[in-house]
Specification:
The complex is a heterodimer of chains A (294) and B (243).
Chain A: H1 3-20, H2 24-28, E1 32-39, E2 45-49, E3 56-61, E4 65-72, E5 77-84, E6 87-94, E7 106-113, E8 117-122, E9 127-130, E10 136-140, E11 145-148, E12 151-158, E13 163-166, E14 169-176, E15 181-184, E16 187-195, E17 200-203, E18 211-216, E19 221-225, E20 231-237, E21 241-244, E22 266-272, E23 277-283, E24 287-292
Parallel strand pairs in A: 2-6, 2-8, 3-7, 3-9, 8-10, 9-11, 10-12, 11-13, 12-14, 13-15, 14-16, 15-17, 16-18, 17-19, 18-23, 19-24, 20-23, 21-24
Antiparallel strand pairs in A: 1-4, 4-7, 5-6, 20-22
Chain B: H1 15-25, H2 32-40, H3 42-60, H4 69-81, H5 118-135, H6 145-153, H7 157-175, H8 185-210, H9 215-242
């Protein structure tokens, strides 16, 4: 290969390299990946405190190990972690107070043993947990929380983030200002849902002897039940409406407790099946809708 | 509750009278008539013990050191002079110099000056309001018109929670530096939720003015107060960490 030929092919490459040289440090300061492995013995407890924005995804496997991977958007935050036995703490820390919101983003992917306790906190960005058995406390300001096939005592707190809980089991406590809550095909025996302006949807079976309280200040509270269900129903609203679309299937409450509708509220009491579970629905000014699923 | 003792607001008191006295004058030495009633009424003794426990628990909370008032005044003057804050905010009233006619729980609002204690203090206020509400005799819904009118005139413990929160919100707005109002999506979300709660609270309060005995509305209002206390606490914490 002649020198002229080499020059013809190499010079454009070298030129491009020189042109991009000043950009290289900026690219290096972009998203940074991290990965850490934590061997566990028993049931681990994993705590993530994300001061910035970003997703937290948790999935399970059968290995006795917690694997943490993720990205951070800049070096203006640091991701710190520590392990003490089966307790694993992960937190993001702000290093530069001049950081813009986009520079404070950290996304986490966790793979944990099936039986793991979780305490996760983020600001915005989705919290996604799938197929984990264990108590979990999940907190977000504006991010949504999606749970699928999880079980345990589940506490979800958001300001405007919404909850979608699919095939969840155990106990669930949800509190939000404007977030919605959707419970799809649940196997939950104890449910407390409260949102000031969000909507609530319960679509699934009521576990016998279960206790269910669903309250929305201004939103819609909708319950879709099956004719095989068995529960006592108490629906109350101050200034809203009770939209009973399943009147034929709801009998008067026959359990001896006399219900008195408050002078200032619109109330509806009834029993489906034997009335084994207890369902309490309320709103301040929203609509309560009761309908049959099948 | 022991409501079998005859006479209403006369020389001998009944449980609701004692509750009213507690709401108006607090745990300070009770009037003779109230003391006589409490001595004979186990329920009221329990109520007093509950309030005592709440106040004791509030005092046992770790207190934040509050700078003298002149520090706030000079700081605010300096910030106003530099144009860093927009408008003057009311300086928190010192409980020791507050007029004696103020309700007893107003002293508790001093606790709210400590940011970290805001949520806990409002929670205690709401709990106290709830206990007071539950301890009221069941037949109070059928109270004679004169007694109902008297009760309507007495200060509502729940309203104290609202007043304390409003005070806390003023503090929040006064410390919001003018130059950092352009904020993140999280701050925007918190502000939107504050507006949502304020609108809901205003709606409930308006409704309760005409339907003061709507227990369900009261519960929603108490929950909204609790959420607002938590929200303000979080906003203050964020402001502190960012600034």
């Amino acid at each position: 290969m002649s020198l002229r030929l080499i020059g013809r092919h190499m010079l454009p490459v070298l030129g491009a390299g020189l042109f991009l040289w000043p950009v290289a440090p900026a690219l290096a300061a972009g998203p940074q990946h991290f990965e850490k492995h934590f061997p566990t013995k028993g049931r681990p407890v994993v705590v993530i405190q994300n001061i910035g924005n970003g997703r937290i995804e948790v999935k399970s496997w059968s290995n006795p190990e917690v694997v943490l991977t993720g990205t951070q958007s800049s070096s203006k935050i640091s991701i710190d972690s520590e392990q003490a036995g089966d307790r694993i703490d992960v937190s993001s820390t702000l290093l530069d107070t001049s950081a813009q919101p986009t520079e404070m983003e950290a996304n986490f992917q966790l793979t944990v043993p099936e039986e793991t306790e979780l305490q996760l906190k983020t600001q915005t960005g989705l919290i996604l947990v799938e197929q984990v058995m264990g108590d979990m406390t999940l907190e977000s300001v504006a991010g949504d929380v999606h749970l699928k096939e999880v079980s345990g005592y589940i506490i979800v707190t958001t300001k405007s983030g919404s909850l979608v809980c699919t095939q969840c089991a155990g106990k669930l406590n949800f509190n939000s200002i404007s977030g919605n809550a959707q419970l799809l095909q649940p196997q939950l025996s104890n449910v407390k849902l409260f949102t000031t302006s969000g909507n609530i949807l319960f679509d699934g079976d009521f576990v016998r002897t279960g206790l269910y309280t669903m309250q929305s200040g201004r939103g819609l509270v909708e319950v879709r039940f099956s004719t095989n269900d068995s529960f006592d129903l108490n629906a109350q609203t101050s200034t809203g409406t009770v939209d009973n679309r399943a009147g034929d299937f709801i009998k008067p409450d026959s359990h001896g407790l006399k219900h008195f509708a408050g002078k200032y509220t619109k109330s509806f009491f009834g029993t489906i099946g034997q009335g084994l579970a207890k369902v309490e629905l309320s709103s301040y000014s929203g609509t309560i809708r009761i309908l049959r699923r099948d | 509750m022991n409501d079998s003792v005859e006479s209403g607001m006369g020389s001998r008191m009944i449980c609701s009278d004692v509750a009213d006295v507690l709401e108006q004058e607090g745990l300070a030495p009770l009037p003779e008539a109230a003391r006589q009633h409490v001595a004979e009424c186990a329920d009221c003794q329990g109520l007093l013990a509950d309030f005592g426990s709440i106040v004791s628990a509030a005092h046992d909370l770790p207190a934040e050191v509050e700078p003298p008032a002149h520090v706030w005044i000079s700081l605010r003057a300096q910030l106003e002079a530099e144009g860093l804050i927009r408008e003057a905010a009311p300086v928190a009233v010192d409980a020791r110099t507050a007029p004696a006619s103020l309700p007893w729980w107003h002293g508790l609002s001093g606790l709210l000056q400590g940011r970290a204690l805001a949520t806990a203090a409002v929670g205690l206020l709401i709990m106290a309001a709830g206990i007071a509400q539950l301890r009221r005799p069941v037949n109070s819904q059928t109270a004679p018109p004169t007694q109902a009118a008297e009760q309507a005139q007495t200060p509502d413990p729940l309203a104290a929670s609202g007043a304390a929160l409003t005070e806390q919100e003023h503090v929040l707005r006064s410390v919001q530096p003018a130059g950092t109002l352009a904020s993140s999506p999280v701050d925007d979300s918190l502000q939107q939720n504050l507006q949502t709660l304020d609108a809901f609270i205003a709606d409930c309060e308006h409704h309760l003015k005409t339907n003061p005995r709507d227990q369900l509305a009261r519960e929603y209002l108490a929950d909204a107060y609790q959420q607002k206390a938590e929200l303000l606490s979080e906003m203050l914490d964020r402001g502190r960490s960012v600034n």
